[in-house]
Design brief:
Helix content is 26%, strand content 36%. By secondary structure, the chain is an alpha+beta fold. The longest helix is centred in the first third of the chain and has 17 residues, at 3-19. The model has no long low-confidence stretch (mean pLDDT 85).
């Protein structure tokens, strides 16, 4: 994908974001997807960002809701992506996905299929070592690792409560899950 392709895709998304404030806009499988952002979503991102920021080195930075074009049909805006701090300093509107070392998505009612089925395939195909899904609807976290061409080969699901440990190329990262918000209408785990 060329720089002009990335600019064109980002331009498409920017127009929709301007027309629909309060919604997160992505291109997934050639479709423009819009999801409203709720307080639990933003709070989860903030808590995880703050926790991880204290654990990764200064050479790493964070991008949230910034475009990462995979191809002309898939431009994701991860809730949180850990990329080189030198890239964050450029303050771009879009970055190549191969910069991502760790990606975090927070599930919303409209993103369940995308976060659990579509994005793992794309993130893994780019060699992103770790994918973390935080689900305030179910009150659990899913960590995925060992990327392959068809998705992640390793996957664990843990209910919110214990500390989550992610063995990543950035080191052993821990995320306390007991304080992560759970949607009051959350479905109990079986």
């Amino acid at each position: 994908m060329t720089v002009s392709d990335i600019d064109r895709l980002h331009s498409q998304l920017s127009r929709f974001e301007d027309m629909c404030p309060g919604y997160r806009v992505e291109i997934v499988e050639g479709n423009i997807m819009m999801s409203p952002v709720k307080p639990h979503h933003a709070q989860t991102i903030r808590l995880v960002w703050n926790t991880l920021e204290d654990q990764v080195g200064v050479e790493w930075g964070f991008a949230s809701d910034v475009a990462f074009p995979f191809d002309e049909d898939n431009e994701f805006c991860p809730d949180l992506a850990v990329i080189p701090a030198s890239e964050v300093a450029k303050n771009e509107g879009a970055y190549p996905p191969d910069l991502i070392e760790l990606v975090v998505e927070v599930v919303s009612q409209g993103s369940i299929r995308r976060d659990y089925e579509v994005k793992p395939r794309w993130y893994a195909s780019q060699g992103i070592a770790n994918y973390l899904v935080l689900d305030p609807l179910k009150g659990h976290a899913v960590t995925m690792w060992n990327p392959g061409p068809d998705g992640y080969r390793g996957r664990d699901t843990i209910p919110y409560g214990p500390e989550l440990t992610v063995d990543s190329p950035l080191g052993k990262l821990t995320v306390p899950t007991a304080g992560l918000p759970v949607d009051p209408k959350a479905r109990p785990l079986p």
